[in-house]
Amino acid sequence: MLLFSGSVTAVVDVIINGGFESGNTGFTSSYAYVPPQQSNCFNEETYSISGNANDCHGSWDNVGPRTGSLFFYTNGGPNAGVSVWNQTFIGVPGATY
């Protein structure tokens, strides 16, 4: 007879909307959100969320998310130190995330 003893720790996803399936919510960005329509992402420091980057910029490949149906994509800018995606959560000292 084998007996095992231990504890089970529930996995809690501390990142809200990490797969962007809820759209433009649960995070902040210093970049400007634009709806995923053709030519909306031509300006630098803009971002959008959809299932295909080509929805927002005709020069971008027809590329989609690795998992799920939506993803975050951006037309970056030349300025350093600008927050592209940001989310704050309260961590527990010593915990592994």
Structural classification: mainly beta
Share in helix: under 10%
What is the count of helical runs? Answer: 0
Strand order of the largest sheet: 1-2-3
Q: What would you report as the Rg, rounded to the nearest angstrom?
A: 18 Å
Q: How would the global form be characterised?
A: globular
| SSE run | EEE
Largest sheet: 3 strands, mixed
Mean pLDDT value: 88
User: What is the CA-CA span between the terminal residues?
Assistant: 35 Å
Unreliable spans are none
- By DSSP, the count of extended strands is 3
Percentage beta strand: 5-15%
Can you offer a commentary on this structure?
This protein is mainly β and 97 residues long. It has a domain at 18-79. It is built from no helices and three strands. It has strands spanning 32-33, 46-50, 71-75. It is globular, with a radius of gyration of 18 Å.
List the helices and strands and how they pair.
Elements: E1 32-33, E2 46-50, E3 71-75
Parallel strand pairs: 1-2
Antiparallel strand pairs: 2-3
What brief labels describe this structure?
single chain; 97 residues; mainly beta; three-stranded mixed β-sheet
Short account of what is shown:
It contains no helices and 3 strands. With 97 residues, it is an all-beta fold.
